[in-house]
Amino acid sequence: MKKSHNHLDPDGKDARTRQILNIPEEVTTSDYLVNNGFSFRTPQGWIKSGRLSLAIIEQEVIYETRHLVIEIGQIIDNYEIAFTTGKLTEADTIQKEKAQLIWEKVDLIHRALPALHAQREHQKLQAARASKPRKLTEEQHARIARQYLEGKENGEGYGLTKALASHYNVSTTTIRNIINKITLENKRIK
After folding, report:
1. Whole-number Å distance between alpha carbons of 80 and 1
2. Relative to the CA of 122, which of 40, 100, 159, 177 has its CA 20 to 30 Å away?
3. Closest CA to 39 of 89, 107, 97
4. How much is the pLDDT for 36?
């Protein structure tokens, strides 16, 4: 049986985490860790699940989330110290909730990163494409538009775009774009 590719989890990180924690397939890892990892009723359970969650995160830490993972670790350490000394306060509870929010942020960053990398690559390709010199000069643009309009006036409209494209060694789309640009500029002038 062929495994289906999950576009939201291309590296299989969620699948590995599910396997480690014996999580059912229909529950997302972040839901499990948020609900069961940071929402345990007892402080010992929260510390234990926080350490487990941290161990999973640390395996896949990246530059963008390293500082967040360190902060989660510090919150867990401080909470454990406060619990063992018997001095849990409201500030510790707030820090616990902060750790949950940071975990969600790390999860979102990990999920969004492939799309961000793809966007950066696309921007680089577009910049490289835009920096290349144009194949035709402005004079050639004007000449193409003039030849096209004269041909249309003389009734030679059929096949004129293809003929101009082959003459100037460009695509028919380029010819149409040039004609549209020139005629639009002429309409603005009038």
Report:
1. 46
2. 177
3. 97
4. 55
